[in-house]
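Changelog excerpt

This revision adds worked examples to the README so contributors can see how folded entries look when concatenated. The first example is reproduced verbatim below.
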Amino acid sequence: MTFSDDTLKAYLQGSLGSEESDAIEAAVENDPELEQRLMDLDPIAPVVREVFRGIPATPQVELPPRSPASAGPWRMLGVAAAAAVLAVSLTFWLTRPQPMGWAEQAALYQSLYTPDSIATLEYPPALVDAQISLAEEKLGRPLNRDSLEGLPGLELKAAQVLSFKGKPLVQIVFADADGNPFALCVIRQGDGAPNSALKQEVLSGLATARWARDGYGYMLLGNRPDNDLTVQLDYLAQTFAG
């Protein structure tokens, strides 16, 4: 299979779909030329190559002599400096930031919301109906507005359709009794996507709970790291998507 430079750049930037990314990774294992093209297109690779230029494949470390005593510290300093450069270079390469998944992206987006952001979201019921209908169409599954409106402690405000790597991602916005923003996100991951059990963690400073079932991923987001989402999760498990 042949991949264009634009496709390979999209892969390096983490913006390529999962199927194409998997195809590239499978091809690289048996195609040194493709691996070299990726290295040539990666803006960080030349930096690493330059650092390693001149370092032998099997570094030979010469220990300092016992005499004269003054020679030891300087030679050890040279060895230490070379080792430090090597360590920093390897760390830089191995700890490059990985592209964020859909949950991390959604949490980062939600973290920008404040009470003021949703204070003016007073849409008439007909408009909210239209938003949810569009979201259901894009997701290919019902969202059950009655259940959403009954979410304990939260008021349904709006729904909007986003996208993550070409997959529809719906954000349903709520407000708690104090006007703080909450959200329920649903993404269509596709047939064959693995189910996953409930996982609670803090993402972008927000308490989150996510799970996956029957080709869809779900995530409930609070407005601060210490939100207790138990009541809402119990309700969703019974009425919306367990």
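The second example, added in the same revision:
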Amino acid sequence: MPLIERAVRNLLEAGCVRHVFICTPSPSRFAWMDTAASSVVVGDHTAGLRAAISAFPDIRFVLVHDVTRAATPPQVIKSVVEALEQGAKAVIPVLPLTDTVKVVDQDGRITGTRDREELRVMQSPLGTAVELLQQAEGDLPGGLGVPLSTVPGHPHGLRIRTEFDVATVTP
């Protein structure tokens, strides 16, 4: 199953996503995704946001999801939306960092170990209020200009980058 199809399916299976706008520079590649529950938009998340507001003027929240995190389970997506409904301004799923992180000097020598208690691996989707995304500047999520709340992520929500990663994703 293509990653884009899996990402859309998981978003819709969360039960709290009304419509998915697929933002792409090449619309013909994803034309088959134009359905009653999803639309293909040429452009970035700003173009997708404009299309979403045009189609659904009453929307309050937006999820910005990365297709390379297509295996994010529906429950994680639902948790992001629930946090927004409970008053969070911007929400992102995270996982505790389990690897040991070393500090290395210019010569490649280890000079210390970072305490991983405060470190987290960020996942997606990023959930935020429509108004906040409209005012965002620069890269997301930092460009939102507000602290991000977090919800527990899931190991399946890790970025799919390599052939090995693809092989571990099950339909």
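Reviewer comment on example two: The two ends are 7 Å apart (CA to CA). The chain has a mean pLDDT of 88.
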